[in-house]
Prior knowledge:
Strand content: under 5%
Mean pLDDT: 77
InterPro entries: YnbE
Protein name: YnbE family lipoprotein
Radius of gyration: 34 Å
Organism: Sphingobium limneticum
Keywords: Lipoprotein
Pfam families: Lipoprotein_19
Amino acid sequence: MNKRTIMMAGFAGLALTGCIQVKAPDKPIEINLNVKVQQEVVVKLQRDAQDLIQNNPELFPQ
């Protein structure tokens, strides 16, 4: 390789470095983690109510 080829490769490398930019976003990054836990709560309440009825049958006559 001669000096001219090496210099051209160096200039090409310098020219390409200006194409890549890392910049912080203007707005904050928002991560939406909406998770529904309704089913777990309902099942737990159903079990608690069932245990309450079974342990206190005089409070809940049928």
